[in-house]
Write a structure and sequence with these properties.
By secondary structure, the protein is of the alpha+beta class. It folds into two domains: 55 residues; 116 residues, no CATH class. Helices cover 26% and strands 29% of the residues. The longest helix is centred in the C-terminal third of the chain and has 28 residues.
């Protein structure tokens, strides 16, 4: 009986190893936090260290539409996909060029780079694709605004990996119940034989 119980425990532990981890949800969604890592260089091509933090000011799509230099873009055509405060040491009278690799953007997507100058949002650049470059003479709040069409949808808890871990948990639970039943049947037979 002890040998059978040991085998049952080992089998249960072996099946438990197949259980996968549950996915975590990014509380910031795609609008902040998990955005593109900016890569900055000065006018000589030297790498400039950047620091990214939570945004102090966030534009609405109406703010973005008001400053985008395109006559046919309306607020309903835009999606703010990333906003962060960025700091970097900009040489006096100089500038830095920052490259953003925009996750989810395709070669035909138009991404607008906005900067908050302390009073209002201004458009710094507009590019197609997912590798966006913009030149800055001052930094801090920076927003990437994509024209809708293929704009990545903001992350929601339901949009995460499809119920990671649910199927293996169910399989393990069923296997444990079946194994427990088999152990009980064998134990009863052994008891009857004695």
């Amino acid at each position: 009986m002890k040998k059978l119980l040991r085998i049952a425990v080992v089998l249960c532990l072996a099946m438990a190893l197949s259980v996968t981890a549950f996915a975590t949800v990014n509380p910031n969604g795609s609008g902040s936090g998990a955005g593109p890592k900016p890569l900055a260089v000065d006018s000589n091509g030297n790498t400039v260290t950047t620091t990214v933090s939570e945004p102090s000011v966030t534009p609405t799509v109406a703010d973005a539409a008001a400053v985008i230099k395109s006559d046919n873009v309306k607020a309903e055509d835009l999606s703010v996909v990333w906003v962060m405060d960025i700091t970097a040491e900009i040489p006096a009278g100089g500038s830095v060029t920052i490259t953003f690799e925009v996750p989810g953007a395709t070669a035909n997507d138009i991404v607008h780079v906005l900067h908050y100058n302390g009073t209002v949002w201004e458009e710094v650049a507009a590019c197609k694709g997912n590798d966006i470059k913009a030149e800055f003479t001052s930094l801090s709040p920076v927003a990437l605004v994509m024209e809708k069409g293929a704009a990545p949808a903001p992350s929601k808890p339901d949009d995460e990996s499809p119920k990671t871990g649910e199927e293996p948990v169910l399989l393990v639970a069923v296997a444990v119940v079946l194994l427990a039943g088999a152990v009980a049947v064998v134990a009863l037979k052994k008891k009857e034989e004695m």
